[in-house]
């Protein structure tokens, strides 16, 4: 009986822990606002970024391309942050596939480092290689994951665990993943769990009516001739996403102003590979690059696949941003990031620079500051009553080129909620280019209670803002004249308390119903001896 009681106590503890985990897991990513003094001044103009996670990060690099430094050295340099090196440090490198002998992937990675000794820029970029085995602790130690694959097949799936990859997203980290093709059900299932569906089995897309091959008469960076086979099935596409911060950068000048350099230098991308689709609502992903209107999907036998999407419905490069603001770039081509394609089309390199900046949160980030809420007439009054006229303001900044500049958009709105939306309106903004303040004067509802003021902002290319503030609205009348609970609602509250009482009564009966019988019972072995 003692063991039985112990089992029940353990069961009760497990039940409580389970309920706690469920509550923590299912909770939405929300930020509770804190008010500041009404006389605190806003910081105008440009502010230098001092937040480390938005300036540099440490990444895990995984690949099955044996000579990655020779084929994608320029892309690795982009990861590093260019010539100044102020970007992302590759803290762990994992070479998977084609293992030989006892050296395994560790030997492959080291040989790659020695082969690249002639390229000082790339060797410095990869000087911090550490381990070659992937561990769950990487999700806490590193800031992002970069996976560059030629073919995603069963050999790769033996090395990469889906829980390892999804762990980065769950911990608000960022992922970059590119593949040329997918072979096998395990690889398809792996991508489906990341909300990506790839047209695999060596399929490829091509614009049959505009198949203008790039100039292959010149030599590549290593001095060899570029062959037709290297650019076969490649084509140019100009279907690139617009009106996002990803492809529009700014230069800071005079520490208080910012001027646009280019709306978008990227006019077309040289692409070679397959296509994909995203298994999420449209508000959670960006169609960064799509096929042209004449694009078709072919299988490995060069036969047209009729049952699948066509034209601009075929996605080539996509960006996913989840509710917790983790970012995930997926490209159904690794070739477009190679040194060869950078040489044939310089816009591929500019495109790579832009999406890496967005992927690892160097652009498209909005921050808030100085949330103020006070009465218009008596600013020092802390209590709010029904029908009061109040003033609400908040400062919003956008990250650009390692500076925080005032965020200037006219579509930021707020809600006043009590069970349902009581008021919804857009925030006003000052005309000055260096003023980051959004504001609104409005009247409180006519009914007392606790209201939630919510600012939920979702704009393509930016992080999701979900800001909340709970405001208690009082009534100036006597308490007896404003009962908290109306009489018709009493049965509802009665059922709630009865349910709680019944639950605890059930737990007590479950734990203590056999205690009386425990004293009368004797051990069967003892009775047998007597």
UniProtKB/TrEMBL annotation:
<feature type="domain" description="OST48 middle">
    <location>
        <begin position="376"/>
        <end position="512"/>
    </location>
</feature>
<dbReference type="InterPro" id="IPR055459">
    <property type="entry name" value="OST48_MD"/>
</dbReference>
<dbReference type="InterPro" id="IPR055457">
    <property type="entry name" value="OST48_N"/>
</dbReference>
<protein>
    <recommendedName>
        <fullName>Dolichyl-diphosphooligosaccharide--protein glycosyltransferase 48 kDa subunit</fullName>
    </recommendedName>
</protein>
<comment type="similarity">
    <text>Belongs to the DDOST 48 kDa subunit family.</text>
</comment>
<feature type="signal peptide">
    <location>
        <begin position="1"/>
        <end position="28"/>
    </location>
</feature>
<dbReference type="InterPro" id="IPR005013">
    <property type="entry name" value="DDOST_48_kDa_subunit"/>
</dbReference>
<comment type="function">
    <text>Subunit of the oligosaccharyl transferase (OST) complex that catalyzes the initial transfer of a defined glycan (Glc(3)Man(9)GlcNAc(2) in eukaryotes) from the lipid carrier dolichol-pyrophosphate to an asparagine residue within an Asn-X-Ser/Thr consensus motif in nascent polypeptide chains, the first step in protein N-glycosylation. N-glycosylation occurs cotranslationally and the complex associates with the Sec61 complex at the channel-forming translocon complex that mediates protein translocation across the endoplasmic reticulum (ER).</text>
</comment>
<keyword id="KW-0808">Transferase</keyword>
<feature type="transmembrane region" description="Helical">
    <location>
        <begin position="492"/>
        <end position="512"/>
    </location>
</feature>
<dbReference type="GO" id="GO:0008250">
    <property type="term" value="C:oligosaccharyltransferase complex"/>
</dbReference>
<keyword id="KW-0812">Transmembrane</keyword>
<dbReference type="GO" id="GO:0016740">
    <property type="term" value="F:transferase activity"/>
</dbReference>
<dbReference type="GO" id="GO:0018279">
    <property type="term" value="P:protein N-linked glycosylation via asparagine"/>
</dbReference>
<keyword id="KW-0256">Endoplasmic reticulum</keyword>
<keyword id="KW-1133">Transmembrane helix</keyword>
<feature type="region of interest" description="Disordered">
    <location>
        <begin position="96"/>
        <end position="122"/>
    </location>
</feature>
<dbReference type="Pfam" id="PF23358">
    <property type="entry name" value="OST48_MD"/>
</dbReference>
<dbReference type="Pfam" id="PF03345">
    <property type="entry name" value="OST48_N"/>
</dbReference>
<comment type="subunit">
    <text>Component of the oligosaccharyltransferase (OST) complex.</text>
</comment>
<feature type="domain" description="OST48 N-terminal">
    <location>
        <begin position="130"/>
        <end position="358"/>
    </location>
</feature>
<keyword id="KW-0472">Membrane</keyword>
<keyword id="KW-0732">Signal</keyword>
<feature type="compositionally biased region" description="Low complexity">
    <location>
        <begin position="99"/>
        <end position="122"/>
    </location>
</feature>
<comment type="pathway">
    <text>Protein modification; protein glycosylation.</text>
</comment>
């Amino acid at each position: 009986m003692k063991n039985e009681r112990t089992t029940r106590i353990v069961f009760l503890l497990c039940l409580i822990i389970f309920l706690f985990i469920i509550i923590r897991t299912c909770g939405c990513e929300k930020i509770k606002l804190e008010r500041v003094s009404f006389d605190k001044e806003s910081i105008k103009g440009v502010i230098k970024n001092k937040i480390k996670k938005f300036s540099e990060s440490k990444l895990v690099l995984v690949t099955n391309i044996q000579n990655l430094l020779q084929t994608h050295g320029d892309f690795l340099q982009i990861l590093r942050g260019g010539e100044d090196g102020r970007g992302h440090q590759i803290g762990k490198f994992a070479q998977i596939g084609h293992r030989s002998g006892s050296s395994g992937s560790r030997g492959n990675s080291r040989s790659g480092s020695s082969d690249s000794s002639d390229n000082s820029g790339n060797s410095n970029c990869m000087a911090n290689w550490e381990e070659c085995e992937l561990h769950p602790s990487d999700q806490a130690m590193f800031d992002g994951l970069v996976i560059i694959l030629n073919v995603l097949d069963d050999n790769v799936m033996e090395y990469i665990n889906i829980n390892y990859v999804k762990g980065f997203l769950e911990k608000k980290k960022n992922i970059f993943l590119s593949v040329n093709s997918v072979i096998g059900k395990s690889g398809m299932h792996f991508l489906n769990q990341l909300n990506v569906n790839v047209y695999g089995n060596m399929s490829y897309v091509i614009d049959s009516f505009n198949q203008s091959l790039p100039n292959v008469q010149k030599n590549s960076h290593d001095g060899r001739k570029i062959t037709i086979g290297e650019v076969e099935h490649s084509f140019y596409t100009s279907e690139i996403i617009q009106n996002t911060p990803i492809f529009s950068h700014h230069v800071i000048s005079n520490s208080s102003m910012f001027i646009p350099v280019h709306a978008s230098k990227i006019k077309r991308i040289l692409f070679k590979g397959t296509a994909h689709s995203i298994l999420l609502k449209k508000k959670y992903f960006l169609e960064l690059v799509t096929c042209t209107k004449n694009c078709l999907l072919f299988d490995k036998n060069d036969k047209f696949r009729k049952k699948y999407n066509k034209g601009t419905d075929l996605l080539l490069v996509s960006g996913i941003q989840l509710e917790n603001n983790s970012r995930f770039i997926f490209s159904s081509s690794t070739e477009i990031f190679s040194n060869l394609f950078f040489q044939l089309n310089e816009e591929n390199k500019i495109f790579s620079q832009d999406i890496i900046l967005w992927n690892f949160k160097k652009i498209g980030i909005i921050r808030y500051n100085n949330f103020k809420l006070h009465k218009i007439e008596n600013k020092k009054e802390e209590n709010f009553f029904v029908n009061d006229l109040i003033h609400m303001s908040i400062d919003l900044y956008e990250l650009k080129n390692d500076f925080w500049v005032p965020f200037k958009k006219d579509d930021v709105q707020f809600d006043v909620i009590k069970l349902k939306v009581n008021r919804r309106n857009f925030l006003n903004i000052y005309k000055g280019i260096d003023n980051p303040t959004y504001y609104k004067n409005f009247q409180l509802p006519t009914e007392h209670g606790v209201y939630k003021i919510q600012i939920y902002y979702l704009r393509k290319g930016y992080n999701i803002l979900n800001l909340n503030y709970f405001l208690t609205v009082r009534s100036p009348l006597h308490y007896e004249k404003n009962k908290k609970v109306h009489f018709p609602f009493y049965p509802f509250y009665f059922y709630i308390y009865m349910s709680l009482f019944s639950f605890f009564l059930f737990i007590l009966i479950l734990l203590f119903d056999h205690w009386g019988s425990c004293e009368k019972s004797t051990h069967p072995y003892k009775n047998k001896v007597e």
